[in-house]
Amino acid sequence: MVMTPTQIEYFLMAARCLNFTEAANRLFITQPALSRQIAAIEKELGFDLFIRDGKTLKLTPAGEVLLEELPAYLMHYNKIIEKAKAKSHGYSGILHIGMLEGSILSEPFTHVFHDFTRLYPNIQIALESLSYTGLIKGINDEILDIIVTLNFDLNERGNLKTIHIGKSETYIVLKKDL
Fold first, then answer.
1. Domain limits of the chain?
2. Nearest to 99, CA basis, from 61, 145, 59, 65
3. CA distances from 149 to 95, 115, 133, 146, 163 (A)
4. Which CATH number fits domain 5-68: 1.10.10.10, 1.50.10.10, 1.10.540.10, 1.20.272.10?
5. How many helices (H) and strands (E) does the chain have?
6. Topology (CATH) of 91-178
7. Reported pTM
């Protein structure tokens, strides 16, 4: 059984969107191409990943397992490839930083990253955008070196050091007539 990293990305996007057309658009491929890839994956694996019921799409229990496990596998695979690539170019390392999905790098962060790469030109920075659960799993599994996130329950985790770096403004946005 062989699933390429590209096929894994295709499956993950389709599983997150639960809509092949939307997933294909996000992947910048056609919907028929995505459908063919998903069918090829299912044939290779020997089981269905999706329940197709008219226009609705749901994950099978096997698909749910893959959706849960494959992001960490893909991240680990990519880290191995990055390490090999870095060694081939003589870099001395890659700093893997995870950020909470949907967060945007503010100006202070971009300056910090710029200064860091200027001071340490042999170290690359690799940014990953993940869910909170994915960030915690990534740092606990030593796939990520640093995570930038909201605090949540991080202070309760004895194996992690937290450093407060600033406040995030939070807003509620609603229609004016409510």
1. 5-68, 91-178
2. 145
3. 16, 21, 11, 10, 11
4. 1.10.10.10
5. 6, 5
6. D-Maltodextrin-Binding Protein; domain 2 (3.40.190)
7. 0.56
pLDDT tens-digit readout, 119-157: 777 788 888 888 888 888 888 888 898 888 876 665 555
pLDDT band at 9 (very low <50, low <70, confident <90, very high): very high
31-57 per-residue burial string, b: 16 or more CB within 10 A, e: under 16? eeebbebbeebbeeeeeebbeeeeeeb
Residue 143's identity, in one-letter code, is: I
pLDDT in tens, 70-117: 999 998 998 888 778 777 776 677 888 888 887 776 667 778 888 888
